[in-house]
Specification:
The complex is a heterodimer of chains A (about 900) and B (about 290). Chain A has about 900 residues and is an alpha+beta fold. Chain A folds into five domains: about 80 residues, Ubiquitin-like (UB roll); about 100 residues, DNA polymerase, domain 1; about 170 residues, Aldehyde oxidase/xanthine dehydrogenase, a/b hammerhead (Aldehyde Oxidoreductase, domain 3); about 325 residues, Aldehyde Oxidoreductase, domain 4 (2-Layer Sandwich), CATH 3.30.365.10; about 140 residues, Aldehyde oxidase/xanthine dehydrogenase, molybdopterin binding domain (Aldehyde Oxidoreductase, domain 4, 2-Layer Sandwich). Chain A is built from 23 helices and 35 strands. In chain A, helix 14 packs parallel to helix 15 and helix 19 packs across helix 20. Chain A is globular and about 75 Å long. Chain B is α+β, with helices and mostly antiparallel strands and about 290 residues long. Chain B has three domains: about 45 residues; about 120 residues, Uridine Diphospho-n-acetylenolpyruvylglucosamine Reductase, domain 3 (2-Layer Sandwich); about 110 residues, CO dehydrogenase flavoprotein, C-terminal domain (Enolase-like, domain 1, 2-Layer Sandwich), CATH 3.30.390.50. Chain B is built from eleven helices and 14 strands. Chain B has a five-stranded antiparallel β-sheet. In chain B, strands 11-12-13-14 form a four-stranded antiparallel β-sheet. In chain B, helix 9 packs antiparallel against helix 10 and helix 10 runs antiparallel to helix 11. Chain B starts with 5 loop residues before the first strand and ends with a helix. Classes of the chains: A alpha+beta (about 900), B alpha+beta (about 290). Chains A and B meet through strand 4, helix 8 and helix 23 of A and helix 2, helix 5 and helix 11 of B. The complex binds flavin-adenine dinucleotide (FAD) and FE2/S2 (inorganic) cluster (FES) (2 copies). The site of one FE2/S2 (inorganic) cluster has 14 residues of chain A, from loops.
Amino acid sequence: MKKQIELTVNNSPESIEVAPRTRLLDAIRIKLGLTGTKEGCGTGDCGSCTVLLDGKPVNSCMILAMQAEKREITTIEGLGSPTELHPIQQAMIRSGGIQCGFCTPGMVLSLKALIDRDPHPDEESIRVAISSNLCRCTGYSKIIDAAKFLSSSETTSMATSSEDWSVGARMTRNDGVEKVTGRAIYAEDIQLPHIIYGALLRSPYAHAEILSIDTTEAEQITGVKAIVTGRDVDMGFYGYELRDHRIFALEKVRYIGEPIAAVGATTVDIAREAASKIKVEYAELPAVFDSEEAITSNAPLVHNDANAYEIDWDTERKGNLCYKLIIEEGNIEQGFGESDLIIEGSYKTPEAHPGSIEPHCSTAKVEPDGRVTIWTTTQKPFVFRSYLAQALQRSINSFRIVPTQIGGGFGGKLFPSVEPYVVLLAEQSGLPVQMTLTREEEMSCTLLRHPSSVKIKTGVMKDGTLVAHQVRMLFNTGAYGLYGPNTAALASMMATGPYRIPNVEITGLVTYSNNVPCGSVRGPGAVQLAFALETHLDKIARSLEIDTLDFRLKNAWETGDITCTGQTLDSVSIKECLQKAADALEWKKPRLPGVGKGLACNWWASGPWGTQTQIQTNEDGTFRLITGCVDMGTGGLNSSILQLAAEGLGVPIDSIQLVRGDTDSLPWDHGHGGSRMTFTIGRSAYEAAEHLQKQLLQEAAEHLEAAIEDMVLEDGSVFVRGDKANAVLISTLCYNRHKKHGGPMVGVSSLLEDFPTTTKKHPIGAFPGASYCAHAVELKVDEETGEIDILRYAAAHDVGKAINPTGCEGQIEGGVAMGLGLAMMEELREIEGKVMNPNFADYLLLTAEDMPPTESILVEQPATEGPFGVKGVGEPPIAPPTGAVANALGDAIDINVKRLPLTPEEVSSLIREQKS
Amino acid sequence: MSNDFEFTQPIDICEALKCLNETGRITPIAGGTNILVNMKRAPIETDLIIDLTRLEKLKNISEENGMFRIGAGVSFADLLNWHPGGAVEGLVRPMCAAFAGPLIRNLATIGGNICDASAAADASPVLLALDANVELVSTTNGSRTLPLSEFFKGVRKTAREDNELLTYVTFGKPAEGERCFYYKLGKRKADAISIVSIAILAKLNEGKIEKVHIALGAVAPIAMRALQTEAMLIGKVLNTSSIQEAATLVVKEACPIDDFRATAKYRLNMIEVLVKKGLNEILSKA
Ligand SMILES: Cc1cc2nc3c(=O)[nH]c(=O)nc-3n(C[C@H](O)[C@H](O)[C@H](O)COP(=O)(O)OP(=O)(O)OC[C@H]3O[C@@H](n4cnc5c(N)ncnc54)[C@H](O)[C@@H]3O)c2cc1C
Ligand code: FES
Ligand code: FES
C-alpha cells in the first residue's frame, strides 16, 4: 500500500507518497525531482546513486524509500550551489576530476563524507573512500588530486582557473559547475508531461526461426499504450560501411537478446510485464559461436547470404565471413628465408564492454508537425539521424535529435540503441516515450569490443632487426557486422606497430556468429593488436636475450619511414616516447624478486571527417561558437575548442559561449569519437575564429578609415597600430554591424582535406595526425596466488601540442585505467551466446584502489595538420596497458602471456604450466 | 504485478516478532544489500517486508564475561571501527576492510550476511573460526542458540524458521596469545566478491598446536571448517612438514564449484596455497 512518508532532504522537510517497493533513489529522482542522483546499475555496484544518509554515504538504490522515513538525506543538490560551491566541488573542477560527470555527484558526496570525518586524509584513505564509486573516464588520479588539494597546499596539475585561457594553459572545463552540482541534464533526466515508458522483448535463443508473434494478451494489459514488432514497420538495413542490421529480428533471431518487439506503457514495470506476455513461437536452429568454427564450410549460416548486404569497401564474403582484407609488402617468404630466427605466437582477447556508467536512454516525442524530437545520449547526433533514416526508411528531416549530456561514450554510443523504438512507440501511442536499458540489458545486448584471435609469425636477425612479419587476425563480430570491417581495417594498420619491417603479410578476417554483436569501442582494433604484437615482441626479445627497450628502439620508426600500407610518416616521435616512459621507471635498474617491468607502444590516427564550425558575433561584442559535435565527456569541446577559438579571435574565453542545440539548428558534424575533437573540431574552430577576426578587422578598418593591414586587435578593441588612444571597441563594431546590415558576422570553417595519402589500396591506408605513445609499468606478482600488484605506471604520449594539458592527462589516466582493466579483469563471457556476467559485480571495472600512481608524460612533436600541431589523445592510451602488463609479468617470472585478462587464476595457471 | 508487497517498520524486537508471525510470505530486511539486488533482477516473492533498521538494540556490540555479543543489525562499517584487540580484531578488521566497498559497508549488516547464507559471504569464515553461535528468537520457540556451523544448511539455506529473528552473534574471547590469519582472494583490490577466503585461529604451546580452527569461504556450498585438517594438526609441532600435510589434506575436504569468478581447480589450488601461507604466518608470529 502506498504511504505518505516524512523525511528531511537537504535540510528541508519533505512529505512524499511512496509505494513499498519504491527505492530511495526513485523517491529522490522522481518524487522530489532531484536528478543529480544517478542510476548506473541499480545493484549497488557503481556508486552513481550515492547520497548521504544521516551523514554517511550509501547507495540510494539499495534502500527502500520507506526505510528512510524520518531520516536525513543529503543529495548533491544540497551541497553547494553554482554561486556557492562546496570546497570539494571547487577542487574537483580545478583538478580536472570531472569528465562525463555521471559519477561526479556520487564521487563528491563520498569525498565530502570523508573530509567531514577526516579533514586531512592520506592518499590511501582517499582511495578507499571512493572505491565504491566507479569512474570510467578519469582514472581517478585527478579526483584523488582534488581531495589532496583540499587538505594540503599541493597544486600539481591544478587548473589555473579560467583567467588564463591561452593555448597550453590548464583550463577548467566550461561545464564543470553544472556537473559538480548535479544540475547537468542527462538523457534519463528528461521529464515530459504524460510520458510513458518503453521496454523490449528480446530473443531467448541464439539462433531460431520466428514462426509467429502474438501480442493479443499483452495488448489487453491495463496501462499498455503501444506495441510494435518488426512486422509493423518498413525496416531498412543500416550500419557504418556495412549495412546488415535491422532494428527488429524478422524471419529469425541471430543472438540472445535481439529485439523482437517493443512495448510502451504507463510504467516501466507494466511495459516489461506486457513484453513478457507477447507470445513468440520459435524453431531453434543450430548455432555457431566460435570464430574459427564459424568460417569452416559446414558451420550453420548466421546470414543466409552475407553478400546481399551493401558494403562500401571491396571485399570477399562467403558463408559466415563478413569481411576480409589482405596487405602485402616486400616478400614474406624471402623475408623468413633470410631471418636468423622465426618466432610464432597466438594471442587472444575477450569480448569487452565500453562500460559507460550511464546506460542508454532516449526520449521521443511526436511534434505537432509530425516530426519526431529525440532527446538522447549520443556521440553522433547527425550520423544517428541518418542511421534512423535508413533503419526506418524515412527522410533525415523527419527527426530532430537533441543531444543531452553524455555519461560516458567510449564508442558505446555511436549507434542507435533504444532510439528507433521510442520513435515508433511515440508515434503509435501519441505520447512521449522514454526507454532506459537496465544494466543487465546494457551488458548483455549492446555493442561490444570485438574479441580477437591473432596469430603472428615473425622473422628476426640475431641483432634484433625485424625482417618478416606475418599476421592473421580473426575478429568475431557476433550476429551483425556493423563496425566489423572498420575494426579489421584499423587493426591491420596496427599490425606492425610503429616498427620498421620490410616484409609483411597481414590478413584480417571478420566472422559472423550467434554471439552478441560488436561495435566500435575506444581504440577499435588497436587494443587487440597492441596486446598481441607488443607481447609477441617481448617473446622475441627474450629469445634473443636483448633488452626489450633496446629491441624496440632498434626497430622503431623514424620520420620518413613508410608504413606497410604506403604512408610516408612525418613527425614520428616513438623513440622519444619510449625513452621517456622507460626513464620514468628507471628501466635499467635491477628488479627485486617477483617484480617486473614492461613496455608497450602504440600509434594511432587523429580522426578527420567532416565538420563545420561557425563563430558568430552577438550585438554586444560577445560570441557564439557553434558546432554540431558533442562532448562525450573528455572536455575537448568544453575547454580546448574554446581555448583555440579565443586564441584565433584574440578575445577572452569567457566572451565566447558554446551553443547548445540540436540537429535542426547546428551545422553537420561527424560526431565525437576517433580521437578527433581537438584535432578536427579544434582546427576548424581556430580557422573559423581567424575568419571572423578578419571580418572584425575589416569592419574596424572601415570605421577607423584605415587599411586593414594596420589594424591591431587587443583587450577587446581594435585600433590603428600605434594609435591605441583612438581604439574602437569590439562591442561597438558588432553593434553597428548588427544594426546596419543585420547580424551576425560569421566566421566559418569546414574541414580541409589536406590529409596524408597512400599509394596502396587499403580502406584506410593513411593515418592523419598520426600520434605515438609508449607505456611502462612496474608490477609485483604473487607467484602462489597469481595476484598482480601494479606498483607504478608511466605513459608518454605525443599529443603534438597540449592545448589543455589537464585535459590531455585526463585522457591518458582514464585510458590507462581502462587498459589496466582490460589487462587484469575485464571480460564479458558468453557461453553458447549467453552473457554470464551482465553486471558490474562480475564485469569488473578498475576501482580507485586498483589504479596505480601514474605519471603522464606529454611529448609535443607537432603534426602538420592539427591546430598548433595537435594530435589526438582520446583513444591511444587504452591500447598499450595490456601489452605492458603482460610484458612486465614476463619480465618478473619468465612466462609467455597468451590471452587476456590476466586474472589471478590466469596468471597462476601460466606459472603452473611453466613450472611443469 | 511485480514487487508488490506491504511494508512495516517495527520499533522493537517484540513488535518485530509479532510481525514475523503474520500470515503469508514474510521477508525481514536489514541493510537491503542482498534483497534490493534480488529485487532489481527479478520480482521478489514476498507479501510483507519487515524493516529491521529501527531495532536499535540490535545495533550494539557488547562484551561480558569474556563473551562478545554482536547485534544482527551491526553494519560492516561499524565493525570496521570496532577495536576489541587481539585475535578478534586480527580477524574481524581485515575481513571488514575487504568486505564490499565503503558505501555498501555503511548499509550491510552482519545479520543479513549470515541469513543470506551465500557460500562466499565474508563474515562466515571469520565467525566460524571464532566458534561463533547465533541467537534466534521467535514468539513460538522463544530464544534458542546454536552454533553457526549448524545454522548453515545448504546453498542459501539456514536453520532459521520463517518466524525467527536473528538477534545476536556471540563468541568467546580467544585466550591471550592466540594467533590468527585472514585472507580474501578476489579479482580486484576493492569491492570484489571472494574467490576464496580463509580465516585461521590457532594456539601453539611450545611449538605444538594446541588449538587450530581453519575456516574457508567460497569452496563448498556453505562456509566450512576444515575439521579433518584441524584434527590432524592437533598435538603436532607446527613446522614445514606439518604445514605441508595440512595443505595437502585441506584440499580433500573442500568441494568447490566452477563459476564465473574461478574454476574449482583454482579454488582448490588456492586453499592449499593459503593454508600454507596462513600457517606459516602463524608460525612466524609465534
Ligand atoms: C555491491 C555489493 C558488494 C557486496 N560485497 C560483498 C562482500 O564483499 N562480501 C560479502 O560477504 N557480501 C557482499 N555483498 C552482499 C551483501 O552486502 C551482504 O550479504 C550483506 O551482509 C547483507 O546484509 P544486509 O543487511 O544488507 O541484508 P539484507 O539484504 O537486508 O538481508 C539479507 C537476507 O537476510 C535476511 N535477514 C537480514 N537480517 C535478518 C535478521 N536479523 N533476522 C533474520 N533474517 C534476516 C533477509 O530477509 C534476507 O534474506 C555485497 C553486496 C553488494 C550489493
Ligand atoms: S545505481 Fe546504485 S550503485 Fe549503481
Ligand atoms: S567522469 Fe567519472 S564516469 Fe565519467
